[in-house]
């Protein structure tokens, strides 16, 4: 089996470029976390920045603690969705691994 260092370097560079693109896409992707059957929605990007919060108008008569609990649950749901999207992107990028060697744990 011939070993071509230039080919290996090209493959490593291509993998780096794919990783950088995946990280940029993941950072810019937005997800919506929900709580209270959709009464509270939180839009978050891949950097965990909250971009938008939506409260159903029917909640305006609820007490403060209830609203805080729903908001916390919606934020937590959004965080889990961001993390799941990032894990899925890594699995898709890894595919069968590098050079036939699978990445452990993916």
Automatic annotation (TrEMBL):
**Which first-to-last residue range defines the signal peptide?**
none
Q: Does the keyword Coiled coil apply?
A: yes
Residue ranges the record marks as coiled coil: 5-32
Task: State the protein's name.
Answer: Nucleoid-associated protein B5T_03008
Q: How does it assemble?
A: Homodimer.
Compartment list: Cytoplasm, Nucleoid
What task does this protein carry out?
Answer: Binds to DNA and alters its conformation. May be involved in regulation of gene expression, nucleoid organization and DNA protection.
Q: Which UniProt keywords apply?
A: Coiled coil, Cytoplasm, DNA-binding
* A GO-annotated cellular component: bacterial nucleoid
- The protein's superkingdom reads Bacteria
Give the species. Alcanivorax dieselolei (strain DSM 16502 / CGMCC 1.3690 / MCCC 1A00001 / B-5)
The keyword Coiled coil appears for this protein: yes
Cite a single GO MF annotation: DNA binding
Q: Which family does it belong to?
A: Belongs to the YbaB/EbfC family.
| Pfam family for this entry, one | YbaB_DNA_bd
């Amino acid at each position: 089996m011939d070993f071509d260092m230039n080919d290996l370097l090209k493959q490593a560079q291509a993998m780096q470029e794919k990783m950088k693109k995946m990280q940029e896409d993941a950072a810019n992707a937005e997800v919506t976390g929900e709580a209270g059957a959709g009464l509270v929605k939180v839009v978050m990007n891949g950097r965990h920045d909250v971009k938008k919060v939506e409260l159903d108008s029917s909640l305006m008569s609820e007490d403060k603690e209830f609203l805080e609990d729903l908001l916390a649950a919606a934020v937590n749901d959004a965080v889990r969705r961001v993390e799941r999207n990032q894990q899925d992107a890594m699995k898709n990028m890894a595919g069968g691994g590098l050079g036939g060697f699978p990445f452990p744990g993916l």
